[in-house]
Design goal:
mainly alpha
Length: 200
């Protein structure tokens, strides 16, 4: 059976018997495109929620026990360990999750503004802003400069103790903030995913 015959037997043809075949086919084509877009949007929301959750988990580990463990050892050892962690963190897998999630958030932010009337758009907007500003923005503006300053310190130098104490306090505070915003963003994207189900 040809595509044309399938179209003729479709419900829309029954409602509009006088419409020409090309018009009916065009309507079905547009409907399929919208369906594919919905699936793609769902996948993007899911990736954003998972990415935010993964990043929140990584930062949560530092907030709850990694930095506390480093504070318990000698400053020289702590500085060396943190310098090594900062170098190891720059790897393809972690960078892909960190910035790939940001890319998804940028798209969802734009989509939420263009389709503000759609259900759950506000949660996409809030989740995107939380991650882009509160997680990635805080990382770039605050945590990375602190890491760069620590990387320039020679273990065993005169300023080691004062800088390490300041680093532990400031870096951990900003890490608490980006952990909370990443978790809140994951929650917001999850609500956006389930919004229609909850409403119904």
């Amino acid at each position: 059976m040809s595509y044309t015959n399938l179209t003729l037997n479709a419900p829309l043809r029954g409602y509009c018997p006088n419409f020409p075949k090309p018009f009916i086919q065009d309507l079905y084509s547009q409907r399929n495109l919208l369906t594919n877009f919905d699936y793609s949007l769902f996948g993007l929301k899911l990736l954003a929620a998972l990415g935010c959750g993964l990043i929140a988990g990584v930062f949560f580990a530092f907030s709850t026990f990694v930095m506390n463990a480093l504070a318990r050892i000698a400053p020289t050892q702590g500085i060396i360990a943190m310098q090594s962690i900062n170098i190891a963190a720059i790897n393809p897998l972690f960078m892909t999750v960190l910035f790939g999630t940001a890319a998804a958030c940028v798209f969802l932010f734009i989509f939420s503004l263009l389709r503000w009337h759609q259900p759950g758009a506000v949660y996409l907007l809030v989740g995107s802003l939380l991650y882009l500003v509160g997680t990635l923005g805080v990382t770039i503006v605050f945590n990375v400069p602190l890491n760069d300053a620590l990387a320039r310190v020679e273990p065993g130098s005169a300023i080691e103790l004062s800088l390490w104490s300041s680093y532990l306090a400031n870096w951990t505070i900003w890490n608490h903030i980006r952990t909370g915003t990443a978790l809140a963003a994951a929650t917001s994207f999850t609500i956006a995913l389930c919004y229609r189900t909850v409403q119904s």
